[in-house]
Description:
Layout: E1 2-4, E2 10-16, E3 19-24, E4 27-32, E5 51-55, E6 61-65, E7 73-77, E8 80-84, H1 99-111, E9 120-124, H2 130-137, E10 141-146, H3 149-161, E11 169-173, H4 176-186, E12 192-195, E13 200-202, E14 208-210, H5 211-223, E15 232-237, H6 244-259, E16 262-271, E17 277-287
Parallel strand pairs: 1-16, 4-5, 9-10, 9-12, 10-11, 12-15
Antiparallel strand pairs: 2-3, 3-4, 5-6, 7-8, 13-14, 15-17, 16-17
Helix pairs in contact: 1-2, 5-6
Amino acid sequence: MYLCDQWRDYQVLDTGDGEKLERWGDVVLRRPDPQVIWPKADPQLWDGAQAVYRRSESGGGSWTFVQPLPERWIIGLEDLRFYVKPTGFKHTGLFPEQAVNWAFMRERLRAAGAWSVPPRVLNLFAYTGGATLACAAAGAHVTHVDAAKGMVSWAKENRDLSGIPQERTRFIIEDAKAFVRREIRRGNRYDAVVMDPPSYGRGPGGEVWKLEDELYGLVDLCAQVLSDTPLFFLLNGYTTGFCASVLKNVVSRCLCSRFGGKTEADELCLSVLSGGVLPCGTTARWLPDA
Length: 290
């Protein structure tokens, strides 16, 4: 597994009965997690939750605030800073398990050695910019693409909060597939790609996006936008039923046939204070031959 245990400002305190209890800085949140099918290890810990998200039988859900919370607050990891807040879809604007991937990408960029031109990284479905900040802080130039204007604005705020120079980033509000197709036509190339495609959604024209129908074609398309000597390709998956070997097969078929190299894939997990780990999706990483 890829175990994320780098955080000081974030911690999973306990899990059980379809929920997780997390500390975000000084704020303790209680959120649902359908993979947690075991009982709570330390029920007394849960009395400390300051806000609870509960699902509705009609779909969606809402927060109950046991104590007043700030509108948003800041948590940090090494030299990176992020605004977090409870949103209407139970999320907080950050997936902390991705820190293990940020460390991987930063290591790959630093291992590339000195460069006359900064490596170009393409971050698709880029959300609030965790991977964007990690790569830009390591010296890369990152093109950040997301179809949601609000998420792109949030990512810009995180960049400024982390003190990353503006010239290291380019923010694009657009459908990821449409953007990649245009970049291929223009002859623009990138030294690395990272993507976190959703399980289901609708495009700007109302078209339905289903990951099982789209994923292979999307990865194959993105392989065409890579430079001749790419540094890495990283694919995240949160879709239930998409195990690590599925992502590995997709990435291997699209990347290894063009560039050689190897693909590794495994679960993303977070350490839990009360014991065990919390599974948080899967990741496939392609690397060039050494």
